[in-house]
């Protein structure tokens, strides 16, 4: 396809369709509810939210394509050395993407997040960004290796250094600094990619599409493998605490969330990422040698899951 | 008493004792657990946390007194016009305070927050700060008037303009901008007060002490009045959503929380403010004419509760 903003947002809508379809099929009973919304300043979106499914307790697969006057701070963050000529600050932008967060009912099925986004300005800036990361309530080495292995496959197809670069980026990004814990087992993350020392824009675009296409088969496999397993009340309780950490990350650190809340974004779409229910216990201590402790021990940067 | 930092922190410890005593008595079964902690960089605190009481589901009455090298940004925020001489940036600080958040079990008992704090530097800065605000899950006009009436009494005893000034400050501070909602019905809030156009430091200190002393009788009265009332599962569900908003405020906006998390504060003490359990429902709509809608309608700045 020719890479135009219209083609990109059409492709993302198709991706949203196919992901919702795959998730509904694996869930077995939950159905996405669709809502189309319009942004006053330009553009809009198509929200798809699922609640109280058989496997998925709460989740969203959100498409948006918005446009308007480019906010100054967006460009400045990376281009602070460039003097802000009026031509630059008065540019218009177009941004489109698909964002997904799935909170399963069972503590034995991991939380997953995926986002791919494209941003351009009338001045010629074109940026690709995205990532997939997994937050198991209980870390299972086999699943973690499967997950990272699949992401490595996607990356390796495009450039041999991408998995290692973008895995490190995810480790650093999905980090709850005040807890000194990663949010989960990471995955891949990249932002503001156009051409780089490895690939040109078209090649990076193909990689970006493959990240989007990888989501459904990966998560469907993890749902399928774990959804039937029995769990205890204690494990459900632990899930609430892990979800509490997820809330902490999203509200304190996540750049997309901050950006959305500060720029008068659609609150319900932005905070779709929060779980149906989450909990906090004062100074909770895990038992020595428990599965919970095993999980905490692995919420660290720099673990190599695909050796 | 002579106003020295030692006397202030001793007085605060006494206040913590008397508040815990009053809350335990009214709760009937819950007991505070105490933990003493030391801050590596200087000072420490005495945490008192109550969980699974008869009335209180989760709450903390936290005392701390910490010291160290004054962080630059703390002074700069208000004193940006003053050039930062090395004498100033290398000053030491002392900060002491009592912070309280109480999350009751019943949705018919309001959440309450109180904080009083004192800050000084070796350069002679002395600041008093504090406030009390109430977050009812369901706003009851009579309780709101009682609450604000008591705060007005405390303020009026010291200066006729304080209630109006500090009530407005609370309305603006306890505001969830992305929701366009106040956190609750507000209360009073003030920060960085030394002498001002109304009172000298000693007089403001007396006011500050009275704010601290007002907390227990006010909240005990609200517990007592509402704790025996029967409530429904739907009301309990609504409580989870209101607590979700509380989490949003604390993690996204609250300056004390941000400051604590960014300066390597004691995470468990800082996040004691979060409820045992909270919830989020996508795009939740209240029923026309319901008590929930009545509450949302009153989560606004500028309501006069003591006319």
Question: What's the gist of this structure?
Answer:
The structure is a homodimer of 307-residue chains. Chain A has 307 residues and is of the alpha+beta class.
Task: Summarize the structure in words.
The first copy, chain A, has helices at residues 5-27, 72-76, 86-89, 141-156, 162-173, 201-226, 233-252, 255-262, 267-270, 291-297, and strands spanning 33-38, 43-51, 56-69, 92-104, 111-121, 126-135, 175-176, 181-182, 186-193, 277-279. The first copy, chain A, has 307 residues and is α+β, with helices and mostly antiparallel strands. Chain A has a single domain, classed as oxygen-dependent coproporphyrinogen oxidase, CATH 3.40.1500. Chain A is globular. Residues 79-87 of chain A have low confidence and may be disordered. At the A-B interface, α7, α9 and β10 of A face α7, α9 and β10 of B.
CA-CA gap between termini of chain A: 36 Å
Strand line-up across the major sheet of chain A: 1-2-3-4-5-6-9
* CA radius of gyration of chain A: 19 Å
The shape of chain A is globular
Structural class determined from secondary elements of chain A: alpha+beta
- CATH architecture descriptor text of chain A: 3-Layer(aba) Sandwich
* Beta strand count of chain A: 10
Within the CATH hierarchy, at the fold level, what is the topology of chain A?
A: oxygen-dependent coproporphyrinogen oxidase
Mean pLDDT of chain A: 94
User: How many domains is the backbone of chain A divided into?
Assistant: 1
The CATH class of chain A turns out to be Alpha Beta
Helix content of chain A: 40-55%
- Give me the strand/helix succession of chain A: HEEEHHEEEHHEEEHHHHEH
Tell me which protein chains meet in the greatest interface and how many residues each side has.
Answer: A-B, 31 and 31 residues
Q: What oligomerization state is this entry in? A: homodimer
- In DSSP terms (H or I, runs of 4 or more residues), the helix count of chain A works out at 10
The name of the CATH superfamily of chain A reads Coproporphyrinogen III oxidase, aerobic
**Range of strand content of chain A:** 25-35%
- How is the main sheet of chain A built? 7 strands, antiparallel
């Amino acid at each position: 396809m020719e890479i135009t903003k219209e083609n990109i947002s059409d492709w993302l809508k198709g991706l949203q369709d196919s992901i919702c379809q795959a998730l509904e099929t694996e869930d077995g009973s939950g159905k996405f509810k669709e809502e189309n919304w319009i942004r006053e300043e330009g553009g809009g979106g198509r929200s798809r939210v699922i609640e109280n499914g058989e496997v998925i307790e709460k989740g969203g697969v959100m498409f948006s394509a918005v446009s308007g006057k480019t906010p100054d701070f967006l460009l400045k963050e990376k281009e602070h050395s460039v003097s802000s000529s009026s031509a630059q600050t008065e540019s218009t932008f177009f941004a489109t993407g698909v964002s997904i967060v799935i909170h399963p009912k069972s503590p034995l099925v991991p939380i997953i997040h995926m986002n791919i986004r494209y941003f351009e300005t009338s001045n010629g800036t074109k940026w690709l960004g995205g990532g997939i990361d997994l937050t198991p309530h209980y870390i299972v080495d086999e699943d973690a290796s499967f997950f990272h292995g699949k992401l490595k496959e996607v990356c390796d197809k495009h450039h041999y250094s991408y998995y290692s670069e973008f895995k490190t980026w995810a480790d650093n990004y999905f980090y709850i600094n005040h807890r000194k814990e990663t949010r989960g087992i990471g995955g891949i993350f990249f932002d503001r990619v156009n051409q780089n020392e490895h690939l040109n824009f078209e090649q990076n675009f193909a990689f970006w599409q493959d990240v989007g296409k990888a989501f459904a088969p990966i998560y469907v496999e993890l749902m399928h493998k774990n959804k039937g397993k029995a769990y205890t009340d204690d494990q459900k309780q632990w899930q609430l605490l892990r979800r509490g950490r997820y809330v902490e990350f999203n509200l304190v650190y996540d750049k997309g969330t901050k950006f959305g809340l500060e720029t008068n974004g659609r609150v319900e779409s932005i905070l779709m990422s929060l779980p149906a229910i989450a909990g906090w216990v004062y100074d909770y201590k895990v038992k020595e040698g428990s599965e919970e402790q095993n999980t905490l021990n692995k919420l660290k940067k720099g673990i190599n899951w695909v050796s």
